[in-house]
Amino acid sequence: MRRITRITTVGIASAALALSATACGKSSTDSGSSSSSTAGATKAAIAYDIGGRGDQSFNDAAYAGLQKAEKELGVKGAEAEPSEGEGDADKVQRLTALARAGNNPVIGVGFAYAPAIEKVSKAYPKTTFGIIDDTSKTGPNIANLVFNEEQGSYLAGVAAAKASKTGKVGFIGGVEVPLIKKFEAGFTQGVKDTNPKAQVLTQYLTQPPNFDGFAKPDLGKAAAQGQLDKGADVIYAAAGLAGSGAIEATSKAGKWAIGVDSDQYNQKGLAAYKDSILTSVTKDVSDSVFNLIKSVKDGKPQSGEIRYGLATDGVGLADSNPAYKKMTDLIAAVDKAKKDIVDGKITVKTTP
After folding, report:
1. pLDDT tens readout for residues 22-31
2. What DSSP line would sit under 207-263, residue for residue?
3. What is the crossing angle of helices 242-252 and 217-229, to 10°?
């Protein structure tokens, strides 16, 4: 049985998408858990990125890893939600509360946690801290869980170019930061290598320090509609919760969407639009979280850079949509591109 503790919450959801109520983050404790069943159990915590649990993407992938650890390792899990408009001090307070409560490891979901993890990890040297998508802050008790997003995005570019009938495809980035530029770079390269005449329409929703581009579905919906109006018939959004809005707009237009981070075809909150989700660029965030928790439980905590790439299926393309499986030419092109990347014949750019 699992017991979940919410530390601080924010409700960010799109009524139009009917996202899961779990995203709103009411404090709750599983009454089925007894003190005897959890006594002495490893305690692990994740602190969510902008958008929180229920984003159908990045944060939900991290939560899946915690769920797996609870089920397979008997870990007692805790979660902490972001607050709207928060700063580094809020993150420091959140991570400190999680570490003080005895959680080990404590995992920050997203690069925004880097400054806070650097500070709190020094105050709790016996606790392992994980940070997803960042290598800027290191330490003996910090595990940097990072991915070759550009490689998975390259495959998405190949798929988009093969599926497009208009020769125009779209990329929507949530916030224009180096991490999301990796998605753009790989996608654009994949499109152009497959069809040099194809046009990639690119738009970022916000500029830092405004991170609404990861949190507000309406922004993604409006951006996708603009690209659809310009003739795009395949749209790839790397925008967290905001990407849900892009999927909604693309689906209603009868065009193809490409999901990100999680296999969004299988996300319950996007069930109404699943038939339009051609594929998703997946990042094995779930296993990265699980593996870190397991390493601590086993007494051999991970630290330093732990990279997940195409060669180890740490990134890839989902094939859950039956329509995708019928596109034999597209699949052949994607498979060849994957082999060429793994074999070193194709070097994928990390900047546009």
Report:
1. 333 322 223 2
2. -TT--GGGT-HHHHHHHHHHHHHTT--EEEEE-TTHHHHHHHHHHHTT-EEEEEES-
3. 40
How far is it, in rounded angstroms, from Cα 178 to Cα 88? 19
Residue type, 126: K
Pull the structure tokens for residue 3.
Answer: 């017991």
Tokens of 328: 């034999």
Q: Which DSSP category does 166 fall into?
A: S
The structure's pTM equals 0.84
CA distances in angstroms from 278 to 17, 155, 200, 236, listed in the order given: 18, 13, 17, 10
DSSP state of 58: H
Residue-wise pLDDT tens digits, 188-210: 999 999 999 999 999 999 999 99
Measured distance CA(29)–CA(26) in Å, rounded: 10
Whether 265 contacts 274, CB under 8 Å: yes
Place of tokens 């709190």: 120
From 120, 117, 154, select the one nearest 136 (Cα to Cα): 117
Q: What does the longest C-alpha to C-alpha distance in the chain come to?
A: 65
